[in-house]
TrEMBL record:
The keyword ATP-binding does not apply. This is TetR family transcriptional regulator. PANTHER family: ACREF/ENVCD OPERON REPRESSOR-RELATED (PTHR43479), ACREF_ENVCD OPERON REPRESSOR-RELATED (PTHR43479:SF11). It comes from Pontibacillus yanchengensis Y32. One of its GO terms (molecular function) is DNA binding. Residues 25-44 bind DNA. SUPFAM superfamilies: Homeodomain-like, Tetracyclin repressor-like, C-terminal domain.
Amino acid sequence: MAELKERIIQSSLDLFEKHGYHGVSINQIVEHCGASKGGFYHYFHSKDELLYVIHDTFITYVLDKANQAKETYQTPTEQLQAIVHSFVRVFDLYKAHIYVFYQESTYLKPHYEELIKKKRDQFKQNIFEVIQKGQEAGEFRNELPTEIAGMALLGMVNWTYKWYRREGEKPIEDIASIYVDIILHAFLTSEEMNKDTNQEYFLKKAFLFEND
């Protein structure tokens, strides 16, 4: 039955992309995926809840990855590498979800909007905390205001949805490594940049969480 849920979500993504949230009915969704209304309502109370699940899927992914990075890696530099890498990958893994999010997020009901906002804020705070810990540990430059640096990182990576194409010249793994390279060059102190471990890192691709 979980397969049916995924089919419903995928059909709604296809239809929302083409016709917009209000241009698509539940009847059209179930017809598109070969389901019944009973099947739809088994998983979703309403079309509003379906829209929330679409939004929640990729936001939960990046939040879980950020928490995992903080638990798995010891240094703030390693943690930030992992967080940025998984953050960039989400634009390939959940490309349609993100497109619908930016196109249709204004239609989220207040209750669902608050749930999404809570997770987005948690992810943002994870970024801020890792940057701050990196500054306290002497890995990241102290002259960078923590929140401004964090918001710059978020803004740069979020913009990926505007230009990323799966058929483009570089795969998402390479793009993620480029982002990590740019961000660490901006954040790391000169002492950290000159360490052998970081020099080695910049000479190879970072494939953190590549099998997820």
